[in-house]
User: Fold this.
Amino acid sequence: MTVDGRAAICLTDSSWTDRFGRSSILLVTRRWLVPVTMLVALIGCAHSQQGDELEAANRVFARSIRWSDLKGWTQQVVPERRAEFLKLAGTDEDNLKVSDYELEDVQVSDDKAIVRSRVSWYRLPSITNRTEAMMVLWERKGGTWLITSIVGGPLPLPPPDAATAHKEPP
Assistant:
């Protein structure tokens, strides 16, 4: 077989042609191209929607931390750890002042995420500003992103394993 006077390799067998001489491989490709493309788009949209939900939850978290809104912050903690978080936070709502919150990195995998940021804050009556790294671990439960632990920052919530390891035996 030649094309424009040059030798060409025929990649299809004659048994792979339809009654009009068209390659069956092309027909199969055309038949599956649209459904496969739609499936890939749907998976991408689902992942994008999940990322958008996490972004929205983190935006609410950032607003709560910037305004020292302990009640709003607590609503984003998983229900089984809210009492523990409030106990750790104490009465810091009036004394905690956050001067800056900067998002650095977000890593998402299925229903878990890690958000790394830098936060600058101080506690009254001190005016000494502290800046440190903060890592927030999120988990998607019932379609909602909730905080499972906070490492670093003004109000850390140790991971559940670390919290139980520090408890005294009965």
Observations:
- Residues 38-165 form a domain with the Nuclear Transport Factor 2; Chain: A, fold (CATH 3.10.450.50).
- Residues 5-14, 26-47, 165-170 have pLDDT under 50 and may be disordered.
- The chain has one domain: 38-165.
